[in-house]
Amino acid sequence: MTSLAGKYSEAKTCVFWDMEDCPIPNGLNPESVYRNIRTALASKGYRGEVTIWAYGDKNQIPGYFESAGIKLERAGDKYARVETMIRGIWCWLMDNSENGSSNLLVISGDNMDFASSLRDWKAMGDNVLLAEPVNGPRRCCRTVLDALIIDGGAEWLWESLAAAGDL
């Protein structure tokens, strides 16, 4: 763990998960995904309080997610989900970030949709963590996102993160 990651090791972490682009893998359920994300974060040295928000348009049963500790937000199509997630992150930061000492984990099918906002959050001193599916549309265009996770951040493939993996 780098010294910068150490700075964030006890900080609050909020997960913003686009569950349409990154659905729950077969054989898992909301409770196991919640537990596995916490385990994966802890294995990278992030031991602070974890909150998970899931964004989607499917007819999910809110109680199924809430009983697992995941807050469910219905957010419409891809563009509506991105906008709703960005607004949600800004609101969460206003309520929870203490002098840029929060961890943000964005789970999305295309994290380039968040590139501008991710740069802003990183510039404010918050730690950026990312997860994308193995078949994400712009995994080849990584320069911007790679720069965000160099100092203390982390990145996972969604399929690995959901299963508490280390990649």
From TrEMBL:
Its GO biological process annotations read: regulation of gene expression
The UniProt record lists the NYN domain at 12-139
Q: Which cellular component appears as one GO term in the record?
A: peroxisome
Q: Name one GO molecular function term.
A: RNA nuclease activity
Q: What is this protein called?
A: NYN domain-containing protein
- Which PANTHER family does the record match to this protein? LIMKAIN B LKAP, MEIOSIS REGULATOR AND MRNA STABILITY FACTOR 1
Q: Which domain of life is it from?
A: Eukaryota
> Pfam families, from UniProt?
NYN
